[in-house]
Amino acid sequence: MHKHRPNLFVTSVFVVAVLFLYIPLFYLILQAFLVDPMDLHSGFSFKWIAKFLDSGALWGPLQNSLLVAFSSAALSVTVGTAGAVGLTRSRKELGVFIQTLIMLPILLPEVITGLSLLLFFLLIKIPLGFTTVVLAHASFSASFVYFIMVEQLRKLDPQMGEAALDLGAPPETVFWKVTLPNIIPGILGGFLLAFTLSFDDFLISFFTSGAAVTTLPLKIYSLMRTGISPELNGLSLLMIVLSSTLVLVLLSKEKTREWVLKS
Question: 51, 137, 151, 187: least buried by Cβ within 10 Å?
């Protein structure tokens, strides 16, 4: 048996790409603990983190972003899961046609999606605000959830549902008692993805939020237009820590699941 040697060129490209992605993040974390974020020799301090925690200018948009992301993710999961379950029972030709339409929000540039949603909300006379942002975010997040749930449903054994139907269970009972418990991992994964997409979105929020709602990306953009605010370093540190903690929790649960399956 010949041992496969790692490709030096491919490995080098991968290392350079990872460094390019993560060096700015580490530098951002370092800036959060500097007296002068633009001077590496200015000394160590917690003042920017404390200033961020005491600042009311960022906590409001952060709360708005969390509320919008949670609401749009819940709506996206409901619509995406219902669509995936319904289309798996329809004819193949109809499913392919609808899947093409569902894929459009993923392929279209966000600026086109945001502009079209803005014109649509103005046409039907819905005031721009929290509701329009949630609907706009859910309109493109539901597409991602749909394809996640389609793959999750493909992993299910169709004989389970058929057996329940043969035993006299109505389709609603089959869904709640058989299908739903087996697709919960996909639902959770779709919710997290939709939550992240909504929380991070700027362009669609810019078009559909109006003056009533300011999300965190919009607030950061407005602050950056007037200059670099050191408070953003404290906010960035908090977001990096929370994101890293979430990834570690998910990885630990996956490792625990693998260990249980092997034992």
Answer: 151
**What residue numbers bound the domain in which 130 lies?**
55-233
CA distance 75 to 141: 9
User: Is 258 part of a structural domain of the chain?
Assistant: no
What would the mean pLDDT of 141-149 be, rounded to a whole number? 90
Give DSSP secondary structure letters for 5-52.
PPPHHHHHHHHHHHHHHHHHHHHHHHHTTBSSTT-TTS-B--HHHHHH
Structurally, the chain folds into a number of domains equal to 1
pTM (predicted TM-score): 0.78
- Note the maximum CA span of the chain: 75
Q: What local confidence, expressed as pLDDT, does residue 68 receive? A: 94
Look up the CATH number of the domain holding residue 159.
1.10.3720.10
In eight-state DSSP terms, residue 129 is S
For residue 238, tell me if it sits in a domain.
no
The closest alpha carbon to 117, from 89, 145, 138, 144, belongs to: 138
Say how many Å lie between the first and final Cα of the chain, rounded: 30
Cα-Cα-Cα-Cα dihedral of 259, 151, 137, 201, to 10°?
60
In this structure, is residue 149 part of a structural domain?
yes
What angle (nearest 5°) sits at the alpha carbon of residue 60, between those of residues 54 and 61?
A: 120
Measured CA to CA, the distance from residue 234 to residue 30 in angstroms comes to: 10
d(CA 180, CA 56): 42
